Amino acid sequence: METKLTLKLNNNSIARAKKYVSQIGTSLSAIVEDFFDNLTVNENKSEFSYSPLVNELSGIIHLEEDFDYKSDYTSYLDKKYE
Questions:
Q1: pTM for the full predicted model
Q2: What integer pLDDT is reported at residue 11 of this predicted model?
Q3: What are the residue ranges in the chain where pLDDT is below 50?
Q4: CA–CA separation, 53 vs 55, rounded Å?
């Protein structure tokens, strides 16, 4: 059963949210429902649920087993702030 919910939010937040959902092809109701589900469905707080976008993007980048991301990021920052 679906029930109507009224929320009071900042106008700018609503405008940004509407723009976001139109870009990804969903609704504000679906986003809010997903948010509430992620907060409340997992009774076991040690379980973490990623958003659908993160799940979709996971596995796209494949790195070597011994890739040193800390060293790579440090090198990037050194170059950026030379």
A1: 0.47
A2: 94
A3: none
A4: 5
